[in-house]
Write a structure and sequence with these properties.
By secondary structure, the chain is mostly helical. The protein is built from 20 helices and five strands. The strands form two sheets. Strands 1-3-2 form a three-stranded antiparallel beta sheet. The chain has a two-stranded antiparallel sheet with strand order 4-5. The radius of gyration is 24 Å and the shape is globular.
Amino acid sequence: MCIFFAKPLVRIPTTCLVAMAAHIMDIPGALAQNSNCIPSQLPSQTFDVVSVFEIPQSPKPNTQIDKLVFTQLGELGITPANLCSDAVFIRRVYIDLTGKLPSAADVQAFLEDKNPAKRSVLIEKLLATDEFAEFQAMKWSDLLRIKAEYPVNLWPNAAQAYYKWVLNSIKQNKPYDKFVRELLTSSGSNFRVPPVNFYRAVQNRTPRGLAAAVALTFMGTRLDKWPEEKISAMAVFFSQVAYKSTGEWKEEIVYWNKPVTNQILNCTLPDGSTVIIPPDRDPREVFADWLISPTNQWFARNIVNRIWAWLIGRGIVHEPDDIRPDNPPVNPPLLAYLEHELVQSNYDLKHIYRLILNSHVYHLSCIPHDLSPAARENFAFYPIRRLDAEVLIDAINQITGTSEKYISPIPEPFTELPENFRAVALPDASITSSFLELFGRPPRDT
């Protein structure tokens, strides 16, 4: 990635340059905005690059997460990295929670703050911001495929309504079980009942296609790995989803097509249990009630594993959308703990964020003491990651005082975005730029 400094670069010793190149990805905000970090001010021979990135202190278990991770590392003979410096932490947590860099004033104030609990205070502050809601809405928009044009074809009004519903749900900290139940059971206009767009964003609208989308999004599992009879059984729950157009341009109604006969469905849930659905009950509701049940490990496991991957860079089950019996979690007690905490908190996702963000595991330096694959797989250090395309262009614009120009095939007034509009807040994947496409923004096509 490109790093823009506030002052012209000068020649620095090769040893410093190599070390900074190896770890620069973790603190571009601090380097770019805090003059104390500018390379032109570094001593040519005595500068200790590592001290900028980490505290020379081994982490101690601070939370239950730390106990579970560090105990396993000890059993494996792996030494965890030191804790990261405050300069690294403020950049890291701003990026991970809001998708933006901290301002120079924010960095300076944080570095000068002597409060030993200042990291926790900052976490709470950022969780309450609109920027947090916008960044999480971007992640959910990727998962839910919010895109107005081809090939998803939600259409502009529906895409806007859907995005606003997701954004407001996050701002309200809507319980996750309620959020998902609304997505799975709603009926009505794609313009006026935004959650119904979950079914409209699925290109394969057959019962099997809908079942596959539900399983991948909310259970973290791929139906193509299931036995045929199990796939067919799950598809039955979505066999009565129907669509019809109205007289309004691009409006579509998603509804439960209630059978005209008094047909009773004898269905099998993914866990093997059977359920009888009377003719006056929407099968989607039966499935949703099973899915969000506190006893259903699939539901809680999927989302806590996904949040862990968002924040730590790798899932406890890797990949996050490939949960299956023959792909076990690397740390089963850790995953079980987070599942339990989610249920006990009444599905408060911010509670899971707090648990992870306040752990010393999240605060580890990106400079490892152990370079083995097992160290990375077991969270012995914070992995260096490529920034999301939206975050990267916003960071470049913030540092350089420039703005990005976005284009869209949609001939609608709302695509005329104001200058300095954040890329992470774009409501529709049809609104894009050459930079976003070049740097790998998810197309939301599948």
